Amino acid sequence: MLRLFHFNKLSILSSKASTFLPLIPIPISKSVKSQMGSYSTSSSSKLLFRQLFEKESSTYTYLLADSSHPHKPALLIDPVDKTVDRDLSLIHELGLKLVYAMNTHVHADHVTGTGLIKSKISDVKSVISKASSATADLYVEQGDKIWFGDLFLEVRATPGHTLGCITYVTGDASDQPQPRMAFTGDALLIRGCGRTDFQGGSSEQLYKSVHSQIFMLPEDTLIYPAHDYKGFSVSTVGEELKYNPRLTKDEETFKNIMANLNLSYPKMIDVAVPANLVCGIQSKAS
Ligand SMILES: N[C@@H](CCC(=O)N[C@@H](CSS)C(=O)NCC(=O)O)C(=O)O
User: One biological-process term from Gene Ontology (predicted)?
Assistant: First the structure.
């Protein structure tokens, strides 16, 4: 008998997610080199976890799956168009069933892989925040739970880098992975944070978001950001509380730091933002 996902608000919207189709072989592009920094971190025997890297935009994509569930339901956080073939071939190789392709926000520096994934596996549902104003199959907001098998991610609204930024945090329950894991997008980076100078960004809002939604998590919570430019792969809430050179400061100092970053605009911003507002399907953006 087919065991359905837990039905919560999100799964009700996505009732197709509970029907499992046979795995379809995915063509593997030879031009996409594997750039996997993959390892398993969770003490939970159920969670399959991989951190994947796209080197041009220094973006991390995360693969999570409930490997103990008979259908091995999986999700991708922040897939990149250039590495979709690599990610889907890994998912196929591991015998996983991709259910959700999720974004933490509308990215400005690369095109999301979500639209491409949906064109290859039609029953995958795209997920983004309601506040992002982007097109997706499912819209989430603060407090929503996204189930995959017996595991879930909780949604925390963390605006500031963009208006619609969210952080996905693994569940707070004894049968969920320990320590917890927070996928912070560009809200909190390792020893840094997302810039706040476009897309509805606000340093005041970012400071409040990180302090109220991320720094309140247990100190052993693992921080997995959407980017790293220095070669770091993971941090913890405890480490960032101590060593983050921006967010350990008081709010006024933080705002001053952010106002003086003097970063040049991302090279792809004019292509990426319009495309990502329609799930990364570039033809619809023009
Ligand atoms: N040089 C890169 C863009 C680098 C950049 O601006 N990164 C963003 C996140 S992607 S919009 C950021 O918030 N950086 C914060 C920081 O302190 O570096 C490009 O041209 O794409």
Answer: glutathione metabolic process
Query: Rounded to whole angstroms, how far apart are CA atoms 21 and 43?
Result: 30
- Rounded CA separation 73/3 (Å): 12
What's the CA gap between 204 and 158, in Å, rounded? 12
* pTM over the 0.90 mark: no
Q: What's the CA-to-centroid distance between 266 and ligand 1, angstroms? A: 6
How confident is the model over 13-22, as pLDDT tens digits?
333 333 232 2
CB-ligand 1 contact for 109 (6 Å cutoff): yes
Statement: 9-14+45-264 belongs to CATH 3.60.15.10: yes
Atom of ligand 1 nearest to the CA of 267: 20
Looking only at the bridges linking them, the beta strands covering 166-170 and 181-185 are antiparallel
